[in-house]
C-alpha cells in the first residue's frame, strides 16, 4: 500500500551560478525523461515527473516598516499520482556508505563545470537554530558541529519568520564575504 503523505524539504542558500546549475540539471532531467534526484545528506528524494503537470508560480514581497522587505519566488509543480509511485524516499547513499566530510550536508546533487557535487552526511555540519528568548523576542545562532555557538543574531526579532529571514540573509551573504584584517 502506498504512503498517503510524503514530505521532503531542502533549503539552503545559493549564489545565482549555483542555482542556475541546479535548474539546468532539473531541466536536463525533465527533457530526457529522467527522475529528479535531491539529496540532503540523510535522505534522497527521487521524483519522476509525468509528461503533463500543473505549474504554479508565485511572487511576493514581504516586510514591514521595521524590517527589510524580502522577495520570494515559489515554483510548485503538481500532478495526479494515483499509483503513489512518482516520489521515492531512501536513505542517502552517502550516509549508507559511511562517507565523512566537513562540507555542508544540504547541497543538492548538481553538475557544475563537469564535476559532480554530492551532498555530504551531516555528522559534522553546523546548523542554525532559531529560538525565542526570555524577552519573547526571536533570535538565531549558528552552532558548530561540536556544539559551540560560533555566531548569533546580536538582536531580537519580533517574529520567528523575521529571524528565519535574517538566517537566510546570512546564508546568502556569507559565501561572498571576504576576510579583512583590522588594525586598532
List its traits.
single chain, alpha+beta, Double Stranded RNA Binding Domain, 2 domains, three-stranded antiparallel beta sheet, 3 helices, globular
Protein described:
The radius of gyration is 19 Å and the shape is globular. The chain has helices at residues 16-31, 93-97, 160-173, and strands spanning 36-39, 43-47, 54-62, 70-78, 87-91, 110-112, 115-117, 127-132, 138-143, 149-152. The protein is an alpha+beta fold and 184 residues long. Strand 3 and strand 4 form a beta hairpin. It folds into 2 domains: 8-124, no CATH class; 126-176, YegP-like (Double Stranded RNA Binding Domain). It contains 3 helices and 10 strands, in the order H-E-E-E-E-E-H-E-E-E-E-E-H. Helices cover 19% and strands 29% of the residues. A 3-stranded antiparallel sheet has the order 1-2-5. The chain has a 3-stranded antiparallel sheet with strand order 8-9-10, with helices on one face. The chain has a two-stranded antiparallel sheet with strand order 3-4.
